[in-house]
């Protein structure tokens, strides 16, 4: 039992010593910054101080103190210095805000610097005067006057406090982020927005506004890194290491093969589409040549006129005179009996071939064109964090139109 208790006490003593060491280390780190005391702003109103003016002064003071508590700027907030200016002046018998008297107040609060001021109500809002005093040197470092606030608005008051503190202490609105990674080259993204590229595995991003950011890195040969949330504070430099996972050889091989196959398939589709277009042009030219060269309508007129006389001598007295006369005879004897009739029938045969060819080509052009160009310019919007998009296919219909007088196709696309 004695040994057990002794062991427990030794463990407790070790834990206490560790906590003390941590506290001592933290104190030494904080001791690197001089302390500042921020007194509550004094309200001045000849017509009488009201609750709204007092509330504005309080909120503005808390805004100044929050900047110091956050560690922004060159100072740290002095412990137990959350006092009111009017109270401290009474305690130290200060009728005015003379430097000697204010320096004594700051010294008693254990501060190296003192921020204090007043808020005066105006017809158009509030005029604020804020001062920064070097307590150790008893010298006024800087004054922020006048700072105008239009009305009691939390957002406006917070912005005014931030600007006043930054102007007085020389604190910048921006911070710096140093990123290191196990990839020599890569693209750095903050909130899915490209911010720069790794150089020898590192990059320094400057002029970043205060706030939280989602950090990710994309690099060849690596998987996209997991998102890391980083916090940026004004005037400070944050360091964030990022570890990327290398892609396996089979993953790289699959990626390369898939890309090559996709490109090869695209080339074949374009080639087939080009062949369909070329065939359509050829059949169209053939059709046009048949109609223009043989003068179809005149040939038929001559055919009907001559055939009535020429064929009677051959024993064919009743020849149909409509445009379907070329199919009236089952043999070629009657056709050969009249040269004009034969030429007209040949013209009709060639024209029919051209019509069919053009119609089939139109259908093939529509189908091959759809498969060759589908998805071009039709990629749907994707989330910011997505790496691939999805192609939306749009239905269509093609209806061929064929007749003895002409041919073609109608297209319908449903959007």
**Could you tell me the radius of gyration in angstroms?**
45 Å
**What structural class should be given to the helix and strand makeup?**
alpha/beta
- Count of alpha/pi helices: 9
Alpha carbon gap, first and last residue = 85 Å
Approximate helicity band = 40-55%
Describe the structure.
This protein is α/β, with parallel strands linked by helices. The chain has 3 domains: 31-169, Rossmann fold (3-Layer(aba) Sandwich), CATH 3.40.50; 174-242, Immunoglobulins (Immunoglobulin-like, Sandwich); 251-413. Helices cover 45% and strands 24% of the residues. The protein contains 9 helices and 15 strands. It has helices spanning 2-30, 51-69, 85-91, 99-108, 154-169, 249-294, 296-313, 333-337, 339-373; strands spanning 35-38, 42-44, 76-77, 113-122, 125-134, 139-149, 174-181, 187-190, 193-197, 202-209, 211-218, 228-232, 237-242, 396-402, 407-413. Strands 1, 2, 3, 4, 5 and 6 form a 6-stranded mixed sheet that branches. It has a 4-stranded antiparallel sheet with strand order 9-8-11-12, with no helix packed on it. Strand 4 and strand 5 form a beta hairpin. The model is unreliable at 1-7, 18-30, 310-325, 327-331 and 376-396 (pLDDT under 50).
